[in-house]
Amino acid sequence: MAYFTLNQASLTHNYRFLQKLFNKKEMSWAPVLKLLCGNEKYIDFVLSLGKEQVCDARIANLKTIKKLKPEVETIYIKPPAKRSIKNIVKYADVSFNTEFTTIKWLSEEAGKQNKVHRVIIMIELGDLREGIMGDHLMDFYEKIFELPNIKVVGIGTNLNCLSGVMPSKDKLIQLCLYEQLIEARFNQKIEGVSGGSSVMVPLLLKGIVPQGINHFRVGETLFFGTDLFENNTIEGMKDDVFTLHSEIIEITEKPSVPYGELDKNPSGEMFEVDENKFTEIQKRAILDIGLLDISKVDFLKPQDPSLNFVGASSDMLVIDITKANRTYKIGDIISFRTDYMGALRVMNSEYIEKRLI
């Protein structure tokens, strides 16, 4: 059976790296835990590292977090759906919002639950996912401040989440200006200006984030140490938090190209035959994972760089071990690093065991 491991030492190292960075900048941050897909072992370990505030985009995951640590502050980081309002108020202390109608529903439900629900208003700065257009912001705020059982605790933005628009000093200054305009017009203090996600960490390290930005949500960089500007690992952080392990179930020498009449495979792919390879023999290993578990092989990187992907079906992954650096045998484990999207797919698979190491 394939299994996925979370390295506690590496994750602790990354957590402390970020905590030290944000403390130095006198800014706050919250881990984004949606990657963990509600896995109690993994969530419990992250919560043990000491954060008093965490983010997620799934209500079921927030429910798990509250079960494990009721006192932790939970932030729902996407605009709520109408049919989720009751549970948003129940399990999320704070939610991101962009629609007055939705906030009105939250206000009504918060009254029923005898709560004050806190909201962060998301502002569009160019990536064109969620967010209010800036020229509508003042009218929007004026209506929200009149709602009972609702407290506006901040404004925020998302960049590099849909269209690939990267954050810049100018965009962050624009966000700070919106905060100042709101405070001046309504005589209301905006506690938090949430500048973005993991993509912001390189800007913090370079010291080019305006002082008015005081809050961040960090997922990918916490778990992978990723510099999303340079697409590499931030110096001083770890990239080995997660590893996928799969067992070899067959090793056979076979022709390197298929033979017989060809058509599309179940994934809709058409194999192109290189006639120059008709006499070539390949040593192939079949692993006990497939597309049902990982969706794509593109997100996997073998820890042994001498291995090459051949292809995958729903239940099996074929690897070329002809030029492998070591001798493999049936029952051996081949391990892979994943990127963020690869880990998300693996975490969402019920067929892969999740282990803490």
UniProtKB/TrEMBL annotation:
<feature type="domain" description="Alanine racemase N-terminal">
    <location>
        <begin position="7"/>
        <end position="225"/>
    </location>
</feature>
<keyword id="KW-0663">Pyridoxal phosphate</keyword>
<dbReference type="GO" id="GO:0005829">
    <property type="term" value="C:cytosol"/>
</dbReference>
<protein>
    <submittedName>
        <fullName>Amino acid racemase</fullName>
    </submittedName>
</protein>
<dbReference type="InterPro" id="IPR029066">
    <property type="entry name" value="PLP-binding_barrel"/>
</dbReference>
<dbReference type="InterPro" id="IPR001608">
    <property type="entry name" value="Ala_racemase_N"/>
</dbReference>
<dbReference type="InterPro" id="IPR000821">
    <property type="entry name" value="Ala_racemase"/>
</dbReference>
<keyword id="KW-0413">Isomerase</keyword>
<dbReference type="Pfam" id="PF01168">
    <property type="entry name" value="Ala_racemase_N"/>
</dbReference>
<dbReference type="GO" id="GO:0030170">
    <property type="term" value="F:pyridoxal phosphate binding"/>
</dbReference>
<dbReference type="GO" id="GO:0008784">
    <property type="term" value="F:alanine racemase activity"/>
</dbReference>
